[in-house]
Amino acid sequence: xxxxxxxxxxxxxxxxxxxxxxxxxxxxxxxxxxxxxxxxxxxxxxxxxxxxxxxxxxxxxxxxxxxxxxxxxxxxxxxxxxxxxxxxxxxxxxxxxxxxxxxxxxxxxxxxxxxxxxxxxxxxxxxxxxxxxxxxxxxxxxxxxxxxxxxxxxxxxxxxxxxxxxxxxxxxxxxxxxxxxxxxxxxxxxxxxxxxxxxxxxxx
Length: 204
What we know:
This protein is an all-alpha fold. It has 8 helices and no strands. The radius of gyration is 21 Å and the shape is elongated.
């Protein structure tokens, strides 16, 4: 991954910061078909769960004092309609994405960019508060874009707030190289969210 970053920097006029952004974006983009497949599967399961909610409430009331019977009856309804609470596809998707993202973050974490300038950042190996703020805003935008259509405003706001706090806290002590990589992934996340919402509009 480090070799790829340096090779890309050569094509970016020698800018290592630009190379980190480009490679991070392309890696995230390459995984987007899988991510979209996982999102479609999750949306389908959410629709199924919503349709059987009244039946599940009735079963819960009927077997309130018998957890074993409640579990058996609930699983029977799930099998009948094809609902899968835990998706094997989703698990495989995470397993496939993790090595690639780990390699990328590992490459930019181990001192890459020391004493290297990019835009206003004097040293890519050190944190920059303005870059942290920008990356946090981009992560918040990506989260808002990927919130499932039809979600309540309160749910959207809480997810965006949680993402913002976690991102800010993580990047505040991280190198600027990681912030650039994180921001590039957030741009791809915004694109993914836009594609997902466009599909929902078309299906409606």
